[in-house]
Design a protein that fits this description.
Two copies of one chain form a homodimer.
Chain A lengths: L11 H11 L4 E5 L5 E5 H17 L7 E5 L4 H13 L2 E4 L6 H11 L3 E4 L4 H7 L8 E4 L16 E2 H6 L15 E7 L7 E6 H12 L11 E4 L6 H4 L1 H8 L2 E4 L6 H10 L4 E4 L1 H13 L9 E4 L6 H10 L3 E7 L6 E4 L11 H8 L4 E2 L4 E5 L14 E6 L15 H8 L3 E9 L5 E6 L4 E3 L2 E3 L1 H10 L3 E11 L3 E10 L7 H6 L13 E4 L13 H7 L9
Parallel strand pairs in A: 1-11, 3-4, 3-5, 4-8, 5-6, 6-7, 10-11, 10-12, 12-13, 13-14, 24-25
Antiparallel strand pairs in A: 1-2, 8-9, 14-15, 15-16, 17-18, 18-19, 19-20, 21-22, 23-24
Helix pairs in contact in A: 1-2, 1-3, 1-9, 2-3, 7-9, 10-11
Chain lengths: 547, 547
């Protein structure tokens, strides 16, 4: 027997309609690529998004078509978020930091029909346009005054002219909430990029969950500045959740240095920001150097990589800014866990609380997780036992876009209802999860797992070490043993023995690396991650010392 | 094109599974009908709910069957919430405060197959059992020690024995999220009660929205005490949302007097409570009389009737407790609007803020509302123009349970996608709604509407008035004019002229009632509401003085 409640679909357009009707006067403030600050209201965002939806239809964009973007965080990008998805087409945010060849591969794989881009990326798009076989229209996201007098891109369109040519009479169509809304590619360290195709339903449920008090705690009293780019997993969903709660939205454009961000924080009364640790490093550097304070910011979301405990302490102790430690993946829309303390934990001593906050956190309602051993058996939540981390939920990927054959691992696990994150983690009795390694990086010594991240962190704490990677080397008796690859700081002197002695007392003795190799550099990927698979190839025949 | 995200259904059982896995150690504390305090964890709630689900199956309860309850707020009632809905059956919470004949009518209309009830209601159930033709099993929600030695109910079952007979190995079934989960009847002042049949989807979406920071702001750091009964629109959804966020749940059983509640607030560290104004009147009376303070409670949800401004001021100014003014209906699951200030409003002077808080509030994301004139045309949001209030959204009723023909008004409006609340309201520019009347009580004078609630509030503020109702009387020139029906306080003396003079300066002159009739009593319904339709019948031929 079915309930007798209204059938209202969870659609991206309903977020915009809500923002317009119930928070119409709320502001969206953008630092433009053109240099100045632009301000308007949700009411104007909604009206311009409708005009843009008409313009897209006039360009022949129809349901399911992919519209690519190469753009910073700004109001035009936001209009595309709503106009494209709201129309039933698919917003495909491309990461301009990728290599041009990779961009072409992704746009071709996605079969983008339209490509919209900021002025910044005109040279980039000009250099690849001829290779983008599916793109029928190139749109420069600016006004006539900023259009180039000549471009190698044939028929280059002007965003503001497209919008100006339409009126705002447009009714957002109603359709199946499982319809695709947006597409993000995740570029792993190996293999081709993989596309994650979000739905309207997954986006809306993710918005509800991420706005909850124990997640990002979003309200109409917030002014949110997402430093995390809108081309990076939809800026962690903030362009959607801000409309859901009616928060002010402050979009920093290309100005991601400490000074530009700090100015916006202060001038716009920002209460909440969100970004990766390296951005905060720059911001804190600026604030410390000039003896500044945050007068309105009361919390910041740190994700994308683990938040260093020292950064957490500075934010909270020195600046009174709460750090919200979050973990997610492109495949999770992205939020999976958030490190908000539970009631009992609030009364714990500071050090103990900090230890909990340094973990990756507990799940948002909707997501479930578990850790399993090699046979897929669930492992205990004791904060010590580590295993492969699996997740499931309505905003977790079920299969990759246009992937003829997903990796057998994904297909298998998803068949059982769980997505294998590729991370190795522990979970404690309160449900707080800690990532200890990537599963492909874990070192299996005599049947036991050794986490490479812990070993690298210890090496990095040595004053003479600039960078350290720990990989598995083959061992006749133990199958694998840890091998440390190290880049020392300029002019620093360090021996293997000195460095290995540094591990004493810091870790179980049998976890200590068997050997150290000093190198000039460690290969890094486009997003700054160490390419350990290249190191593994390079040191495949490394002979460990007897011991 | 569909997105490629996991298909996870929004089911009530997922709330319990989440609470068990991620907040397993969190407490549920109940004041039992038997008199003592009972404590256990979400882990035990989940295990006992699974045993209960097996017990229900053993009694022959299957998908879609209705299981009725007559019970206070307590852990056994909570187990029924999850076991019944989680199994795919329908939890039907009956209101024990209704007249026995009405209860029988409702249980017969719902065709309840099982009836579970607290010890308190044994005499009530014994008195009506023979008339409940569809009920196959009567279950007393207690243990063997409290079972009566003899009962007129044949085959009376013992709840604890049913649970003890089962183990907890039970997998919650997976099914369409639009499946009915629970049923509540709303007893209007006229006509038969109407059943609202909630779905798993509507319940889950309502939980997400109601837990948001701008709604009830629920987290794992809360200890929630719902004074609002679990037989009254699912205690405003708190038994569900508490599991969603992992909050401690404190269930007061039958002890709803000021002293019993205050004791639980303090002993259990309650941070949030929820109930109707009359309950708070009792609580505040107790607290004031004994010079007490609230040491942990920081906010309280007031709904069911408008919160008197004086109560709001006492809670906030004297006791530092934030009042969350909420509006809803059985037909809305129940939450529609919540009176949480927006960012700009926080800086307003106190009086102005209070005026906003006294309104019924702004919508939760998911619900939309509008006010319309007699032709269905949308009216402006100026805080002055009043019109019929319509709502829509995924947790709004679409039709009543087993109703052969809904009222034409409902059918019509729902056909257009909007539910007519029967309320008359204004909405201001910020989206804050204020109820000014029930539409059937509004007075139409010369084509203009006069709100009866305002006129009654003024009369009630006169020191000699005990109760006042304002109804429409027929008028040859203006069609309708306000007529005031008044019960004076014992020994008070009051003339029509004195009372009407009292309106001067308080309201537009043409709103002043044309006449006053003094009566000994005003008829009240079961829930304490004035039965104005009876007054309208009684004074149908009242002759207004010429004027």
């Amino acid at each position: 027997m079915l309930g007798q409640m209204m059938q209202h679909r969870l659609l991206v357009s309903s977020l915009l309609r809500h923002a317009e009707r119930h928070h119409g006067g709320q502001l969206v403030v953008s630092r433009r690529v053109e240099g100045d600050i632009h301000r308007y209201t949700y009411r104007e965002l909604a009206a311009r998004s409708r005009r843009l939806a008409r313009a897209l239809a006039a360009l022949g964009v129809s349901s399911g078509d992919r519209v690519g973007t190469l753009a910073w965080n700004g109001y035009r990008h936001l209009e595309l978020y709503y106009a494209v998805s709201g129309s039933g087409a698919v917003l495909h945010t491309l990461n301009p930091r990728l290599h041009a060849d990779q961009l072409v591969w992704i746009a071709e794989h996605a079969k983008d029909q339209v490509l919209c881009f900021d002025l910044t990326f005109l040279p980039l798009v000009e250099s690849v346009a001829a290779r983008l076989s599916s793109v029928r229209h190139f749109v420069l996201m600016s006004d006539r005054a900023h259009m180039p007098t000549y471009s190698t891109i044939p028929g280059l369109l002007c965003y503001e002219e497209l919008v100006a040519a339409q009126d705002d009479r447009f009714d957002w169509p109603d359709f199946d909430e499982n319809t695709a809304s947006s597409l993000c590619y995740t570029s792993g360290t190996t293999g081709n990029p993989k596309g994650v195709l979000y739905s309207h339903r997954s986006t809306l449920l993710h918005s509800y969950a991420s706005a909850l008090p124990d997640a990002l705690n979003l309200s109409a009293r917030d002014a949110i500045l997402p430093v995390v780019p809108m081309f990076h997993v939809n800026a962690w969903g903030l362009p959607y959740s801000a409309c859901m709660v009616g928060a002010k939205l402050v979009l920093p454009g290309p100005g991601l240095d400490g000074q530009s961000l700090y100015e916006l924080f202060e001038s716009e009364g920002v209460t909440l920001s969100a970004g990766v640790p390296t951005v905060w490093q720059g911001l804190l550097g600026h604030v410390q150097k000039h003896g500044l304070r945050f007068s309105t910011m009361n919390r910041t979301v740190v994700g994308g990589a683990a938040c260093p405990p020292a950064m957490l302490a500075i934010f909270e102790d020195t600046y009174g800014v709460q750090v919200i430690h979050a973990w997610g993946m492109t495949e999770l829309s992205p939020l999976g866990t958030v490190g908000i303390l539970k009631g009992d934990q609030l009364a714990w001593p500071k050090e103990q609380r900090r230890a909990v906050q340094s973990k990756q956190g507990r799940v948002l309602f909707g997501v479930d997780m578990k850790i399993v051993d090699a046979d897929g058996e669930e492992l205990p939540w004791d904060g010590k036992t580590s295993g492969d981390l699996l997740v499931r939920g309505p905003w977790v990927v079920s299969s990759y876009f246009n992937a003829a054959n997903d990796s057998p691992l994904v297909a298998d696990a998803v068949g059982n209802g769980w997505f294998p994150t590729g991370d190795v983690a522990t979970i404690d009795a309160e449900g707080f999860m800690t990532i200890t390694d990537r599963s492909k990086d874990v070192i299996k010594s005599g049947g036991e797992w050794i986490g490479s991240i812990d070993l690298e962190n210890i090496a990095m704490a040595h004053p003479a070490v600039a960078m350290a990677a720990c990989i598995a080397a083959r061992h006749p008796k133990w199958d694998e043993r840890p091998l440390l690859i190290v880049v020392t700081k300029p002019d620093a002197e360090l021996t293997s023995h000195e460095l290995l002695s540094f591990y004493e007392g810091k870790i179980a003795k049998w976890w200590t690396p068997d050997d150290v190799v000093f190198v000039d550099s460690i290969p890094l990927g486009a997003t700054g991650k160490m390419l350990k698979h290249m190191l593994r190839d390079q040191f495949a025949n490394h002979l460990l010392p007897k011991g």
